[in-house]
Amino acid sequence: MSFNDIFECHSWEETSRSIYAKTSADVEQALNASKRTLEDFKALISPAAAPYLERMAQLSQQLTLKRFGNTIQMYVPLYLSNECNNICTYCGFSYDNKVRRKTLSPMEIMEEVAVIKEMGYDHVLLVTGEANQSVHTDYFKKVLELIRPHFAHISMEVQPLDLSDYQELTPYGLNTVLVYQETYHEEDYKKHHPKGKKSNFQYRLDTPDRLGQAGIHKMGLGVLIGLEDWRTDSFFTALHLNYLEKKYWQSKYSISFPRLRPFSGGLEPKVAMNDRELVQLICAYRLFNEEIELSISTRESVAFRDNVIKLGITSISAGSKTNPGGYAVEPQSLEQFEISDERTAAEIAEMIHKQGYEAVWKDWDMSLTK
Amino acid sequence: MLKIADKIFSSRLFTGTGKFSSPAAMESALLASESELVTVALKRVDLQDESDDLLKHLNYPHINLLPNTSGVRNAKEAVFAAQMAREALETNWLKLEIHPDPKYLMPDPIETLKATEELAKLGFIVLPYIHADPVLCKRLEDAGTAAVMPLGSPIGSNKGLKTIDFLEIIISQSNVPVIIDAGIGSPSDAAKAMEIGADAVLVNTAIAVSGNPTKMAKAFKIAVQAGRMAYEARLGQVYSQAVASSPLTAFLDDEF
Fold it and tell me: ipTM score here?
């Protein structure tokens, strides 16, 4: 059985109707439950939960402190390439976006690494577009080999790969793979991804199963908030998470909340999500799942990030550049999206410290998975 | 309704056949319990004798026999016993019990995992008796077990759910039915096990050694139904939350 067997039993429309039909009694029941179910999650992300936001935040804070303590994990993205054969209506790297393409050479990667290390990072997230001629498993192997001595934890957010690719990359030091479904609305997914390998909805949907089979240490899930109704999309993410946790029980999981941001050639979000709703979603995930890591990126504003770290978030990026070479090689090249919080990693760490938390830079060691 | 492998059970109370004062007392209690899955120790029955006294008293259409391997000490012996049971009792269902320790009858996790892997490959519906070990339960799932049967406390002790914290973890992450086995000493223990989300309980000693096994079996039947009903109705949270003096979401009212 794969997630698809479960996915096929749930219609988008019916799920959506069910979320919007939740009442304050359903929310009360979810808040008071000793164990929360997927139906509770629906109630917590529904419009009916809006008046309960403060209570959700209090509970979310308590549960997060219980499991994660007063700590926030630090990570930073390293964009390796903006080459991409996909057309994605919302992305600056889209194939039809006429920008100069670049894939970092080994020497350029090391220049970037030097700057990232100076910032204090030990956890790096490698990011690329999808260009299988130049950015492929062999390329990733070389990159991992090159940077492995410099980082304790290496994550990847690249195109979905075959099971055998993940199995090949793991011994090279790959710890975590992030693969966002973008949207679980199959028809709209196809509209947003009209060309390229990414247009294969099913292959993407099956990716976390392949990661689980490959024994990847941690996988990150999420949707791109703004493409479709965020409540329904988030329910499907929770459904996916629930299935994966039980089946691939030796892996860890994280959820991210990327909201559509302006970029070169931009798309207006179909569905806007305000800050209050994003807080609701973060708290709903925490109340649903006490163990899940919740991550927030520099897409969000300074004021929002300063406050949200106490509400359930467990990891944060800072000082991020979203263009290949952005740290040292070509700081002015095209970004994948604009960032909102431009503070340095040190400034973010200071902010975290002032709020009574520890900024954790290293939380793994390669020797543990050799 | 509870489904294990391809069988549907309307009763979530499973019972055992040991320690009764007579086969007749056992029969009366088991009928009162309305249990549909009854475990029987291979070492107690004469597999060659179709008119075995114990089996004769279990000959009801609603009662499914669950032979157990009590007495074996390792995986090899368990597999051999399972094959014998399948041939003699014409069932591929098996309660796998491997306890090399004759004093406390503690299940051997390593041999149990080995035997489960092999028996599942041989087509058995394996229900292993184990410690309340969440990792072992997931390992058994990967090995192809049909259910897991973690102990509530030492077998025959009537001490109740001493392992409740671990049982809750097992229940929360299991993809197969969780049957709490061993240690359940009273109907309230059984109700509690059901309230926390167990799919079924297996009770033997508490019924068999009670002053009135038939009445006690009926009490267990009702307790299991009540516990399940409470679970389905959903329990509320036990702890109360303090209301913080400075709201966490006030910042959302500010204009950024």
Answer: 0.74
